[in-house]
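Morning F.,

Quick status update on the modeling queue. The single chain you submitted on Monday has been processed. Sequence for confirmation:
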Amino acid sequence: MKKIGGGLLVGSVIVISFTGIWKIIVKAGTTIAEKNKLVDKYKLYFCLNNKWISLKESNKRLSRYFVENQIKSIAVYGLGDVGLNLCDEIMKDGIEVKYAFDGNLIRYESLIPIKRLEDEVEEVDAVVVTIPDEFEAIKNNIGVKFSCPIISIDDIVYSV
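Structure tokens below.
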């Protein structure tokens, strides 16, 4: 009887230990996957900004893309650093940014009208998504709202 009770105790400890170890392994795997996703995101942004700086050093401007594609007015999806830099550069060259979509940056409303996806919006020649790592999901989400092209900032920067 003592051997059975001791065996159950040892068995229970082993099962609990393996369960705990398994949970740690699963959580570590998720954490590693999340960190790898962030690393990929930051690599994408680094390469994008590096290319953009290279263009600036060669006196090439992103407005060239819009002129060549006969795009005179745009909406911008995402007013983080990339979106604000895009707006700043192209507005100086006469490309009209009619409005932007950004849930986090209401403070820029005075520069560019901020819209929600539910709002009625003016027609534009293109929508530029400035969140490259989420482009496909955003394009799928807003595609039904717009009849104009939805363009990734990557496509613009890498084609100038």
